Amino acid sequence: MMELDVYTKDGTTDYRKEPAVKNKTGTWKACPFILGNECCERLAYYGINTNMVNYLKTKMHQTNVQAVNNVTTWSGTCYVTPLIGAFLADAYLGRYRTIATFSIIYAIGMTLLTLAASVNGLKPNCDSQGVCEPTGSQTAIFFIGLYLISLGTGGIKPCVSSFGADQFDDSDKKEKRSKSSFFNWFYFSINIGALVAASVLVYIQTNVGWGWGFGIPAVAMAIAVVSFFSGTRIYRNQMPGGSPLTRIFQVVVAATRKFKASMPADLSLLYETTADEESAVKGSRKLNHTEELKFFDKACIETESDHIKGTVDPWRLCTVTQVEELKSIIRLLPIWATGIIFSAVYSQMGTLFVLQGNTMDLHMGPSFQIPSATLSIFDTLSVLFWVPMYDQIIIPFVRRFTGHRNGFTQLQRMGIGLFISIFAMLAAAALEIVRLHIVKKNNYYDLDHIPISVFWQVPQYFIIGCAEVFTFIGQLEFFYEQAPDAMRSFCSALALITNALGNYLSTALVDIVSDVTTKNGKQGWIPNNLNYGHLHYFFLLLAVLSAVNLVVYCIVARFYTYKKAAGSID
Q1: Which of 66, 121, 342, 487 could tie 62 with a disulfide, CB 3.0–4.6 Å?
Q2: What pTM did the predictor assign?
Q3: pLDDT digits (tens, 9 = 90+) for 75-114
């Protein structure tokens, strides 16, 4: 028995592909390298994303709508490409090698972007008035670098949080508790990087130059790679389990072939491997049978024809675990869909919040001005405040009343964040109403900066930061915990896709609103001069959509069934 306790029980291996020794690998001693990697990589990402809308306007000569749509489209793509990385990680490469490979692509993209902003001939030419006219080739090089970054982040983003959580054994009660805490500190490290990006880098980009402003994130990405490789010898690694899509299609085909078959009265007769906790799926524990979605159970009904050739054809007979993998994914989808509206709200920080701030008084003191994009620092500070508050105070306090080891369940945590996000949009709308009132009262329509401090935007940023701690961190943990062992990167990618669809939804809403409200020569809600617009209507629209989304979320969460893996601890 003592011999068995030497190794982890979740199937993880060390860098030599030997069973992972518990006291020599993983846990918190492996996390600094992973958290350091994430902090630097996110500094690089937010160093590009936070102020991109202003670069596109000033250097690429784009309108407000063009710049906003390009930013949200690129940001959305950064959350779609994780499907590629997740598939490769779960099916063939494993999370460690996927992160390493795509980090190189990421670094190439960062380098190309830096060159496009700093090297004569590659950067746009600007006249004495500061008006820039990029050539077709300059625009192409810039966007190639930008989308190489989106491909690179696609291999890192779905894997790194799951890779960090892999360092904790689900079968160990102490490590299981630490895993939940890991997700909080993982998001904390993300926001340390975002803090530097929103303050130092935005200032450098605005006041020193875009070459330095993009070059520093490129260096940060190099540091991220070094940090990650430094922990190689103490990492725990989950082995890739083969193509998850193939297993999903096998269940669908097998269940369809046996749709006329009758379920046995004794469900223990459904086909499963005989090993105590190992499943037929490489790198995965067995999953216990659940009652929902009974049609797919037909895939694991054994018949005489299934054993005629001696070996089992997985397109005719699947294990209970394989069927439960598909059920787990299907159960996640309604919860997943409700994250899209929240992501659309979140995306406003990099677009319309910045444009709103551009019209306000940017002074901090008599002579010092700050870029409006710097205000996103208050979202970051909010997260940095609420993460330790949640981990050290809220969880122990709530645990006294709920008895749950994490205070709130994952679903409760996400729902609270959705509720809080409504007030961020209401705060932004209220500020815009006040701003436009000042414009109208004093006839400031053609004034670049209205005499109302940009720091009145702080509440809307701070509220979004609070909502993030509940919803985004809750999503990270929920999609990791509820995913089958061999599909965790894939499910992390699913969670990230809500960010992509949120960005795309924001883009679509801006386009629709722009088309509808500019008919008959009207200025519309979001004109180039926001003093003539009605930006508050757009924020109120998002608030209404968020309220409806919360109601839908409460309904689908009420009927959700949590996954139970063999050997795991509740």
Answers
A1: 66
A2: 0.78
A3: 878 878 888 998 898 888 889 999 989 988 998 999 999 9
